[in-house]
Structure formats: structure tokens, C-alpha cells
């Protein structure tokens, strides 16, 4: 058996190196644990920031959706008002005696705004005559029609043709 002997100073030097390596290992382990803890903290912070941003953008999305719904309701209401603020003639005729001249004017309910007078289209008049006058009418006869609401001095008369004569007449 062979024994190796080293000097005391060399032994102490090696022991010192060994202790230094042990301390470095322990220090590196602590740094590793600190770094792992810091990584975990940063990971949690990142997750928290992501969650906060997602919640923030979801809230913004909900607010935008509510705003959009409100704007759509406003648009529908405005469209309804616009559709009901316009006047449309039931027939294709001409307008006379217009009493309003400003766009967007307010008028009282039931007020006459204009008169619609016959235009170039075909107009059929149903007239009632007394028994004594019916004998003077015949189909195809030319007629000159005067309307009581349209004074003939101002509007003239409407020319037409008798297209049918009924079997009954009015009584006086």
C-alpha cells in the first residue's frame, strides 16, 4: 500500500480552494434561485398586464357596442322623423297656393298648406244631375266642367267628354 503524503501548506491551500468553490456553488445557487424567483415574478406581472389589457379592451368594446346601439337607435328615430316630416301628394298633380315657403317650417295641425290642382293626367268626374237636365245629356257629348273650389275666372274650366250616363238621377 502506497500512501501519498502532501505538505501541510499544500493541504491548506487545496482546502481553501475547495471552500472557495463550495462558496461559489452556494452563491450561484442563491443567484439561480433569485433569478428563478424574478422570472416567476416577471411572468406573473406579464400575465397580470395581459389580463388588465384584455379587460380594458373588452370594456372599450362593450362601450363602443353600447354607443353603436345608441347611434343606431338615433339614426332609426331620425329616419322615422324624416320620413314623417315630408309631405307626399296622393296623386300626381300640380301644386297651387302654397302657404309655406321656408324649408323646415313648423305648421299647425289641420292647416291647409297647399292646394293640389288637376294636371295633365286623366281625370274622371262623377256628377249628379236633376231629372229635368238628364234629357239633355248623351254619351260622347263634350263637357265643360267648373269646380266650385276652383273659381273658373281664375282657373278656367276643364274640358271633357261624357263617357257614361247612369240609369237614375237626383231628386231636387
Briefly characterize the structure.
The chain is mainly alpha-helical and 172 residues long. It has helices at 8-85, 131-134, 152-155; strands at residues 94-96, 115-117, 142-145, 158-161. A two-stranded antiparallel ribbon has the order 1-2. A two-stranded antiparallel ribbon has the order 3-4.
Describe the structure.
This protein is mainly alpha-helical. It has a domain at about 1-85. Helix content is about 50%, strand content about 10%. The protein contains three helices and four strands, in the order αββαβαβ. The chain has helices spanning about 10-85, 130-135, 150-155; strands at about 95, 115, 140-145, 160. The strands form two sheets. Strands 1-2 form a two-stranded antiparallel ribbon. The longest helix has about 80 residues, at about 10-85. The radius of gyration is 52 Å and the shape is rod-shaped. The chain starts with 7 loop residues before the first helix and ends in an 11-residue tail after the last strand. About 0% of the residues are buried. The model has no long low-confidence stretch (mean pLDDT about 85). One of its GO terms (cellular component) is membrane. Pfam families: Beta-barrel_AprE (PF26002). It is found in: Membrane. Keywords: Coiled coil, Membrane, Transmembrane, Transmembrane helix. InterPro entries: Beta-barrel_AprE, MFP.
Amino acid at each position: 500500500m502506497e500512501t501519498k503524503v502532501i505538505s501541510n501548506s499544500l493541504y491548506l491551500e487545496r482546502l481553501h480552494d475547495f471552500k472557495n468553490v463550495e462558496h461559489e456553488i452556494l452563491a450561484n445557487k442563491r443567484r439561480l434561485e433569485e433569478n428563478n424567483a424574478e422570472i416567476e415574478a416577471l411572468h406573473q406581472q406579464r400575465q397580470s398586464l395581459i389580463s388588465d389589457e384584455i379587460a380594458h379592451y373588452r370594456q372599450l368594446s362593450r362601450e363602443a357596442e353600447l354607443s353603436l346601439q345608441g347611434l343606431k337607435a338615433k339614426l332609426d328615430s331620425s329616419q322615422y322623423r324624416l320620413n314623417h316630416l315630408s309631405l307626399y301628394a296622393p296623386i300626381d298633380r300640380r301644386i297651387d297656393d302654397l302657404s309655406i315657403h321656408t324649408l323646415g317650417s313648423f305648421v299647425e295641425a289641420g292647416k291647409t298648406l297647399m292646394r293640389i290642382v288637376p294636371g295633365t293626367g286623366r281625370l274622371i268626374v262623377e256628377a249628379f244631375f236633376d231629372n229635368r237636365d238628364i234629357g239633355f245629356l248623351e254619351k260622347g257629348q263634350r263637357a265643360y266642367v267648373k269646380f266650385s273650389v276652383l273659381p273658373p275666372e281664375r282657373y278656367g274650366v276643364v274640358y271633357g267628354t261624357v263617357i257614361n250616363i247612369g240609369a237614375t238621377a237626383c231628386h231636387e
